[in-house]
Amino acid sequence: MSTTFPKHARTCKHAGLCRVAKNSFGMNYEVLKFIYQQGIVPFITYGSLAWGRSINKIYQRYLWKIQRRILLSIVKGYTTLSYEAALVLDGVAAIDLEIQRKNEVSLSFGRPSSDLIIGR
Protein backbone atom coordinates (compact mmCIF):
# COMPACT_ATOMS: atom_id res chain seq x y z
CA MET A 1 0.00 0.00 0.00
CA SER A 2 1.35 3.40 -0.88
CA THR A 3 1.85 6.10 1.68
CA THR A 4 -1.07 8.16 0.41
CA PHE A 5 -3.75 6.70 2.69
CA PRO A 6 -1.83 6.90 5.99
CA LYS A 7 -1.02 10.52 5.21
CA HIS A 8 -4.67 11.21 4.36
CA ALA A 9 -5.87 9.52 7.57
CA ARG A 10 -3.49 11.60 9.68
CA THR A 11 -4.66 14.73 7.89
CA CYS A 12 -8.28 13.88 8.69
CA LYS A 13 -7.42 13.44 12.34
CA HIS A 14 -5.34 16.59 12.67
CA ALA A 15 -7.69 18.76 10.61
CA GLY A 16 -9.93 19.03 13.63
CA LEU A 17 -13.00 17.53 12.00
CA CYS A 18 -14.56 17.01 15.40
CA ARG A 19 -14.43 20.75 16.03
CA VAL A 20 -16.71 21.30 13.06
CA ALA A 21 -19.41 19.13 14.61
CA LYS A 22 -18.80 19.80 18.30
CA ASN A 23 -21.60 20.24 20.79
CA SER A 24 -22.91 23.71 20.38
CA PHE A 25 -26.05 25.41 21.63
CA GLY A 26 -26.60 27.11 18.27
CA MET A 27 -26.54 24.00 16.09
CA ASN A 28 -29.29 21.43 16.17
CA TYR A 29 -29.19 17.82 15.00
CA GLU A 30 -30.26 18.55 11.42
CA VAL A 31 -27.57 21.18 10.90
CA LEU A 32 -24.84 18.98 12.35
CA LYS A 33 -25.94 16.01 10.26
CA PHE A 34 -25.96 18.20 7.13
CA ILE A 35 -22.40 19.33 7.89
CA TYR A 36 -21.42 15.70 8.40
CA GLN A 37 -22.99 14.47 5.15
CA GLN A 38 -21.94 17.35 2.92
CA GLY A 39 -18.59 18.31 4.42
CA ILE A 40 -16.98 15.70 6.61
CA VAL A 41 -17.81 12.51 4.66
CA PRO A 42 -16.54 13.95 1.34
CA PHE A 43 -13.38 15.14 3.12
CA ILE A 44 -12.69 11.71 4.61
CA THR A 45 -13.54 9.81 1.43
CA TYR A 46 -11.56 12.12 -0.87
CA GLY A 47 -9.42 10.08 -3.24
CA SER A 48 -10.98 6.80 -2.14
CA LEU A 49 -10.86 5.43 -5.68
CA ALA A 50 -7.08 5.35 -5.31
CA TRP A 51 -6.79 3.89 -1.81
CA GLY A 52 -10.26 2.46 -1.04
CA ARG A 53 -9.59 -1.14 -2.05
CA SER A 54 -6.25 -1.44 -0.29
CA ILE A 55 -7.46 -0.36 3.15
CA ASN A 56 -6.60 -2.86 5.87
CA LYS A 57 -8.07 -3.48 9.33
CA ILE A 58 -5.69 -1.08 11.06
CA TYR A 59 -6.74 1.88 8.94
CA GLN A 60 -10.35 0.76 8.95
CA ARG A 61 -10.37 1.00 12.75
CA TYR A 62 -8.61 4.36 12.50
CA LEU A 63 -11.42 5.66 10.29
CA TRP A 64 -14.00 4.19 12.70
CA LYS A 65 -12.41 6.14 15.56
CA ILE A 66 -12.60 9.37 13.59
CA GLN A 67 -16.21 8.72 12.59
CA ARG A 68 -17.25 7.72 16.12
CA ARG A 69 -15.93 10.96 17.62
CA ILE A 70 -17.83 13.00 15.07
CA LEU A 71 -21.05 11.00 15.50
CA LEU A 72 -20.88 11.36 19.28
CA SER A 73 -20.83 15.11 18.78
CA ILE A 74 -23.79 14.99 16.42
CA VAL A 75 -26.03 12.83 18.63
CA LYS A 76 -24.64 14.56 21.73
CA GLY A 77 -23.90 11.19 23.29
CA TYR A 78 -21.63 10.22 26.13
CA THR A 79 -18.19 8.80 25.44
CA THR A 80 -19.37 5.40 26.66
CA LEU A 81 -21.64 5.11 23.62
CA SER A 82 -20.33 2.40 21.30
CA TYR A 83 -19.48 2.94 17.64
CA GLU A 84 -22.34 0.73 16.48
CA ALA A 85 -24.84 2.52 18.71
CA ALA A 86 -23.69 5.90 17.40
CA LEU A 87 -24.22 4.67 13.83
CA VAL A 88 -27.75 3.52 14.66
CA LEU A 89 -28.70 6.68 16.54
CA ASP A 90 -27.47 8.91 13.74
CA GLY A 91 -28.80 6.69 10.96
CA VAL A 92 -25.62 6.62 8.88
CA ALA A 93 -23.49 3.85 7.42
CA ALA A 94 -20.03 2.92 8.63
CA ILE A 95 -17.35 4.96 6.89
CA ASP A 96 -15.76 1.93 5.25
CA LEU A 97 -19.14 0.99 3.74
CA GLU A 98 -19.60 4.59 2.62
CA ILE A 99 -16.21 4.45 0.87
CA GLN A 100 -17.16 1.18 -0.81
CA ARG A 101 -20.52 2.59 -1.93
CA LYS A 102 -18.94 5.76 -3.26
CA ASN A 103 -16.39 3.79 -5.27
CA GLU A 104 -19.04 1.46 -6.73
CA VAL A 105 -21.22 4.40 -7.75
CA SER A 106 -18.25 6.18 -9.31
CA LEU A 107 -17.21 3.15 -11.30
CA SER A 108 -20.76 2.33 -12.41
CA PHE A 109 -21.28 5.81 -13.84
CA GLY A 110 -17.77 6.03 -15.22
CA ARG A 111 -17.06 9.43 -13.73
CA PRO A 112 -15.55 10.77 -10.51
CA SER A 113 -17.93 10.66 -7.56
CA SER A 114 -17.28 14.32 -6.76
CA ASP A 115 -19.77 15.05 -9.56
CA LEU A 116 -22.54 13.25 -7.66
CA ILE A 117 -24.70 14.80 -4.96
CA ILE A 118 -24.46 12.85 -1.71
CA GLY A 119 -27.59 12.17 0.31
CA ARG A 120 -30.19 12.69 -2.43
Keywords:
globular; single chain; 120 residues; 0% strand; mainly alpha
CA-based shape = globular
Number of helices: 7
Report the average pLDDT across residues.
78
Order of helices and strands: HHHHHHH
DSSP E strands, number = 0
| Radius of gyration, in angstroms, nearest whole number | 14 Å
The largest β sheet comes out as: none
Strand portion, in percent?
Answer: under 5%
- First-residue to last-residue Cα separation: 33 Å
Q: From the structure provided, what is the oligomeric state, counting identical versus distinct chains?
A: single chain
Structural class: mainly alpha
Q: Could you write a compact summary of the structure shown?
A:
It contains seven helices and no strands. With 120 residues, it is mainly alpha-helical.
Describe this structure in words.
The mean pLDDT is 78. The protein has 120 residues and is mainly α. α1 (4-14) packs parallel to α5 (57-75), α3 (29-44) packs antiparallel against α5 (57-75) and α5 (57-75) crosses α6 (83-90). It has helices at 4-14, 17-20, 29-44, 48-51, 57-75, 83-90, 95-109. It has a domain at 28-109. It contains 7 helices and no strands.
